[in-house]
Design goal:
Order of helices and strands: EHEHEEHEEEEEEHEHEEEEEEEEEEHH
Number of strands: 21
Structural class: alpha/beta
Strand content: 25-35%
Distance between the termini: 26 Å
Bound molecules: flavin-adenine dinucleotide
Shape: elongated
Length: 338
């Protein structure tokens, strides 16, 4: 990090669509670097629903989101993409020689002839409860996503929130955790009625503690290791819940973040593209996947894949205007052995 790189294409976002864009660029012999703010590739599939099956990927009657990502990464691997993970793309500016220059939060600088923005819902992040010192616990005993429910086996888990995510995880974790407490500021939930009645049944059976109407107040613990969650009512009645894990589920806030400052034409927080080319209003900047909009856009993975194929050919045309691309099928052009 802090390094300077030069390449054909830089892809902003390593979600399913960004990963497939590596493959499509590889097919037209463009080299890629890929940047993602998350520590792992896979975007929403990895961060939000790794264990959920997907039923609408052509050729896969059913595939778990995490498995789809493993396969997309393997499909891109022969083209030797360079990944820069755990860093947010912050600035994007024109550089000399027809390059765009991108700088990340870790100081990595990448120059590329074309940029494909595959930033999904943007720099999406959880709504964090305003608790003093919560940062020290994040990733150790405070989590905003569950990626592996097994890691909570035998733990005392406090879930905060009143929506579907809070209720669904309470039901699921009640099967493995030593103790599950649900803290919510009201006694009514905003969850599917079926889930809410299952929750109430588990509460009645003594399997889940319902802590309502309480709000999070502070955390006890040392070195990121949680010992108790303190909660209080609006009237100031306090309670201490011994706990190893806190899962605050207050929804996600999605914002384009720095991307909104790159001079791209936007429509309701999404990037307008010409679907025939995936081009944005700025020459050399293309966009694909959930981050884009155009008439008829479907926010589906398969639609993003098709946009990636279009963007790769547009990038090729920009980078090699003198060598028209002869359309080839993957079988005839040959994918290098992994
Ligand atoms: P994303 O997956 O959102 O990935 C974008 C990536 O860009 C993220 O990793 C983000 O961290 C990164 N990023 C953003 N800004 C920056 C920045 N400035 N710097 C660095 N990195 C950045 N679709 C289907 O087709 N079928 C389904 O069954 C289905 N089920 C779903 C179920 C759920 C619960 C959810 C939430 C979505 C579902 N979807 C489904 C939608 C699907 O997940 C999205 O369409 C898909 O993830 C879009 O892929 P993407 O690569 O465009 O964006």
């Amino acid at each position: 990090n802090g390094h300077m790189h030069q390449t054909d294409v830089v892809i902003v976002g390593a979600g399913p669509v960004g990963l497939f864009a590596v493959f499509e660029c590889g097919m037209v012999r463009l080299r890629c670097h890929v940047v993602d703010v998350l520590e792992d590739v896979g975007g929403q599939c990895t961060a939000l629903y790794p264990e959920k099956p997907i039923y609408d990927i052509p050729g896969f009657p059913r595939v778990e989101a995490a498995e789809l990502i493993v396969r997309l990464k393997a499909q891109a691997a022969p083209f030797q993409p360079v990944y820069h993970l755990g860093q947010q793309v912050q600035s994007l500016e024109p550089a000399t020689g027809g390059f765009w220059q991108l700088t990340t939060s870790k100081g990595t600088v990448i120059q590329a002839r074309a940029v494909i923005v595959a930033a999904g819902v943007g720099a999406f992040g959880p709504n964090r409860p305003p608790l003093d010192g919560i940062e020290a616990f994040e990733g150790k005993s405070v989590f905003y996503y569950v990626t592996q429910r097994e890691s909570f086996r035998g733990k005392r888990v406090v879930i905060a929130g009143g929506g579907d995510t809070a209720v669904d995880w309470a039901l699921s974790l009640a099967e493995v955790a030593a103790r599950v407490s649900v803290v919510h500021r009201r006694d009514r939930f905003r969850a599917a009625p079926e889930s809410e009645s299952r929750l109430k049944a588990l509460v009645a059976a003594g399997k889940i503690d319902l802590v309502v109407p309480y709000q999070l107040q502070s955390l006890d613990g040392v070195d990121g290791r949680l010992m108790a969650v303190n909660v209080a009512t609006l009237d100031g009645v306090e309670k201490k819940i011994p706990a190893d894990i806190l899962l605050p589920f207050f929804g996600l806030s999605m914002s384009l973040g720095p991307i909104a400052e790159w001079g791209l034409a936007l429509e309701r927080n999404q990037i307008s593209i010409d679907p025939a080319t995936a081009a944005t209003n700025r020459p050399g900047l293309f966009a694909v996947g959930d981050v884009v909009t155009y008439p008829g856009k479907l926010k589906l993975i398969l639609t993003g894949f098709a946009e990636a194929a279009v963007a790769a050919r547009s990038a090729y045309g920009l980078i090699h205007p003198e060598q028209p691309l002869h359309f080839e099928y993957s079988t005839t052009s040959g994918v290098p052995a992994a």
